[in-house]
Each structure stands twice: as C-alpha cells, then as structure tokens.
Amino acid sequence: MSDLQCAARVIVVNPPALSDVAWLASAIHLEKVQAVYAADDVPDTGPVESLADDLGVPSHLGHGDLHDGSSGLEELVDRHRGETVVVVRGGEAPDPLMLLVDADGVTAQPIEGLS
C-alpha cells in the first residue's frame, strides 16, 4: 500500500448485516459512499446490488479477496484515498465496522449510530 495523505474509509459489511438493506443504507448514507464492492466469498449478491442502488453508487461484484491484509483490499484503499467505500465480504458479524486506513496503519471503529 502506498503512502496515503488522507485516510481511506472502508465500511466492512458481512452478509448478516444485509438482512435489512433499506435500514443499512439509511444508516450509512451520511458517509458519502462512493462505491460498493463485493468479495468473491459473498454467496448472494442481490442485497449488495440493492445496497448500492439505495446509496446511488455503483456496485462491483466478485472483486476477489477483500479480507484484512489482502492485496484486493489494499488496491481498493489506494484507489479510494480520502473517500468512503463499502466492502461486503464473508463473515458472521451482524454490525458494519468502519476501517480507517492510512500510512500509519488501520484503525477499526464502530459506525456511529449502529452500535
């Protein structure tokens, strides 16, 4: 990952958090999301596309491995410096998590109003 001047903001969503797409979209809409990416391990991409539609942003399906430390996630961070994106990947966590990624590393924090 190259040196970032501004942190990339990555909202990590696991499939259980997609059970109410309309609520999720309304909860994160103030984050000014630029795109929604889905990893290869997401079994049902319908809710991913619905989330992107509700946010009014493009969806990118089958985007490879997007887990922490993967080259796929690092590529997205480099591409979206100073922006916010949603990454949907396999896992069981019911609540989305915000990752702030910059040259100093990764900071994880709950999303305000969701925890």
Describe the structure in your own words.
This protein has a six-stranded mixed beta sheet. Helix 1 runs parallel beside helix 2. It has 115 residues and is an alpha/beta fold. It is globular and about 35 Å long. The mean pLDDT is 89. The chain starts with 7 loop residues before the first strand and ends in a 5-residue tail after the last strand. It has three helices and six strands.
Give a summary of the structure in a few sentences.
The chain is α/β, with parallel strands linked by helices and 115 residues long. The protein has three helices and six strands. Helix 1 packs parallel to helix 2.
Layout: helices, strands, pairs:
Blueprint: E1 8-13, H1 21-28, E2 33-38, H2 46-55, E3 59-60, H3 71-79, E4 84-88, E5 97-102, E6 105-110
Parallel strand pairs: 1-4, 2-3, 2-4
Antiparallel strand pairs: 1-5, 5-6
